[in-house]
Each structure stands twice: as C-alpha cells, then as structure tokens.
Structure to design on (121 residues):
C-alpha cells in the first residue's frame, strides 16, 4: 500500500502562482515568511534547526533590489512563488552551514506550504 502525496501538484501550482506587483502585497508575503521562519522549526536528535529571518530578507532583496543577483527580477517583472522558493533554497545551500542544509531546505518547503509543518515534527 503506498501513500499518496500532493507535493507535485503543490509544486506545479507554485510555478504558476505569481506574487502581486503591488508593494503592499509584497510586504505582506515577506512578513508572513518572516513570521513563519520565526515559528517553524525542525527537530532532530541533535536539536532544533530553524531558518533565520535574515535569510528570508536577504532573499527578498536579491530578487527585487540586487541587480547583480542571478535571481534578480526587479519590481517590474512578476515573481512566482517557485522562483522565490528556489532563491531561498539556493541561498541556504550556498551558505557556510553544511551541517543543516537538508533540514533547512525542508523548512523552506514548509514556509511555502509545499510540506505540512506537522508532518516533520
């Protein structure tokens, strides 16, 4: 008996869901992601793993304000949730923290509702 997963459908939906170009909507999304990064944690035998809210903010800056970033879109182009999630995952995997990359990547999936928070704790 196999368990069904809706991960693929959620991932496809995130590829086609775009962040509004309205500044208020952008800030609302950023606030929601920062709040979730403060609340969500991944528990392991070695302890708790959390995402830093500064990682979320730095990713936001790299997408909307840093023309030298490979994820830069500026404020005039639409940004999909998948692009935002990919940028955050890349930011985490490129960091110096090599011990908790897997757990932090799972936390990113939780931030974007690709994986349920309760499933991982």
């Amino acid at each position: 008996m196999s368990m069904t997963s809706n991960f693929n459908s959620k991932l496809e939906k995130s590829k086609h869901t775009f962040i509004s170009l309205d500044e208020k909507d952008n800030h609302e999304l950023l606030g929601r992601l920062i709040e979730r990064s403060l609340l969500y944690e991944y528990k392991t035998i070695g302890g708790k793993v959390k995402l830093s809210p500064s990682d979320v903010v730095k990713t936001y800056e790299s997408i909307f304000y840093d023309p030298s970033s490979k994820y830069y879109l500026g404020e005039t182009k639409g940004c999909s949730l998948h692009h935002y999630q990919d940028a955050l995952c890349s930011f985490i995997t490129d960091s110096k923290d090599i011990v908790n990359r897997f757990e932090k990547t799972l936390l990113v999936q939780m931030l974007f509702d690709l994986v349920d928070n309760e499933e991982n704790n």
